[in-house]
């Protein structure tokens, strides 16, 4: 029985180590993304770091995936500290909030009735009709 307990403990430790390495790589990618976006928008990334501030489930199509939220601080003119946030799924940036800009990559609904998907831009959030909703005009 001692060999089984040792093996189980070893599997748990390897799982924890793998999870730590995966999250560490994801954090490094988030730092790189925050640095790139701050340079792009003329902001200074303070402390050159980000911190994991939240995790949520997000539905993309028929799948549910984990979306991580990282928080960091930026400066607009060097005399202030403003909060910034970015959301990532895997290594992909899905949303960015900076003091001067908000960028989201909204899900585009799959239209089964033949309508084409139209890319959204700016701060427009697409509304999708729920199944069974009538088209009511006032």
Rg, Cα atoms, Å: 21 Å
**Largest sheet geometry:** 6 strands, antiparallel
* Counted beta strands: 6
How would you spell out the order of helices and strands?
A: HEEEEEE
Q: Report the total helices.
A: 1
What distance separates the N and C termini?
Answer: 73 Å
Uncertain spans, ≥5 residues at pLDDT below 50? 108-125, 132-138
The fraction of residues in strands falls at 25-35%
Helix content: 25-40%
Region (Disordered): 112-138
Pfam families: DUF3301 (PF11743)
Protein name: DUF3301 domain-containing protein
Brief overview:
Helices cover 28% and strands 32% of the residues. With 138 residues, the chain is an alpha+beta fold.
What does this structure look like?
The protein has one domain. Strands 1, 2, 3, 4, 5 and 6 form a 6-stranded antiparallel β-sheet that branches. The chain is built from 1 helix and 6 strands, in the order αββββββ. With 138 residues, the chain is α+β, with helices and mostly antiparallel strands. It starts with a helix and ends in a 34-residue tail after the last strand. It is elongated. 28% of the residues lie in helices and 32% in strands. The longest helix is centred in the first third of the chain and has 39 residues. The C terminus is likely disordered.
Descriptive terms for the model:
138 residues; alpha+beta; six-stranded antiparallel β-sheet; 1 helix; 6 strands; 28% helix; 32% strand; elongated; DUF3301 domain-containing protein; DUF3301
Task: Please outline the helices and strands.
Layout: H1 2-40, E1 44-45, E2 51-60, E3 63-75, E4 82-89, E5 92-98, E6 101-104
Antiparallel strand pairs: 1-3, 2-3, 3-4, 4-5, 5-6
């Amino acid at each position: 029985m001692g060999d089984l307990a040792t093996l189980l403990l070893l599997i748990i430790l390897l799982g924890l180590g793998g999870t730590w390495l995966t999250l560490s790589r994801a954090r490094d990618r988030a730092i790189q993304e925050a640095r790139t976006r701050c340079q792009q928008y003329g902001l200074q990334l303070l402390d050159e770091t980000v911190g994991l501030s939240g995790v949520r489930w997000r539905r993309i199509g028929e799948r549910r995936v984990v979306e991580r939220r990282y928080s960091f601080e930026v400066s607009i003119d060097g005399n202030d500290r403003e909060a910034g946030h970015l959301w990532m799924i895997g290594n992909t940036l899905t949303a960015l909030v900076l003091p001067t800009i908000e960028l989201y990559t909204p899900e585009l609904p799959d239209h089964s009735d033949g309508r084409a998907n139209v890319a959204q831009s700016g701060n427009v959030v697409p509304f999708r009709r729920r199944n069974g909703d009538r088209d009511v005009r006032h």
